[in-house]
Write a structure and sequence with these properties.
- By secondary structure, the protein is of the alpha/beta class.
- The protein has one domain.
- It contains 3 helices and 7 strands; from the N terminus they run ααββαβββββ.
- Strands 1, 2, 3, 4, 5, 6 and 7 form a 7-stranded mixed sheet that branches.
- β6 and β7 form a beta hairpin.
């Protein structure tokens, strides 16, 4: 009985630690945010995309035939989308993405939401999903996304991924 209790306790400790409950440090409070300037939005988008495309944070991107040309849809002003080293972001509307899939076949695309202000934080999300051609018979169970949270401290934006999911 003691072995099971120890294992159960250890398992709970590992689970809580992975969720950030064990040994949680005091969270830094950001400056109050009333609105985002173009410069603020551009910096948040830049950091979001850098976090999204570093290492293997793009869910199931290894299934894509083309990992350099990234087809991309966003609600953010296209003029605020930065250039990223080694990645060619090709901005398209939902309709353009669908036309491409109908003509050339299924492919993966990335979506970036508008930033949303929440008092002292800004939240933004990204997702990776398949765009299916009108004649596609394939059912995809892949893709995913991230939600990121940004705070501004001493005039500088810092962000972290707060949630990740896979399909």
């Amino acid at each position: 009985m003691k072995k099971y209790l120890v294992l159960l306790s250890l398992g709970l400790l590992v689970q809580l630690s992975c969720r950030g409950y064990a040994g949680k440090q005091k969270e830094e409070i950001g400056e109050p945010i009333e609105f985002l300037t173009r410069q603020d939005t551009a910096e948040i988008v830049k950091q979001t995309l850098e976090l999204k495309f570093e290492k293997d944070r793009v869910s199931d991107w290894n299934l894509s035939d083309d990992t350099v040309n990234i087809f991309f849809r966003t609600e953010v002003n296209p003029k605020l989308i930065p250039e990223l080293r080694g990645i060619n972001l090709i901005l398209m509307t939902r309709e353009e993405l669908q036309q491409k899939a109908d003509k050339e076949g299924d492919f993966m695309a990335v979506y970036l939401s508008d930033p949303v202000i929440d008092s002292t934080k800004v939240r933004i999300s990204t997702s990776t999903h398949w765009v299916k051609g009108k004649d596609s018979k394939i059912l995809y169970l892949s893709g995913g996304g991230n939600e990121l949270e940004f705070i501004k401290v001493n005039g500088r934006w810092t962000g972290k991924i707060t949630t990740s999911w896979i399909i």
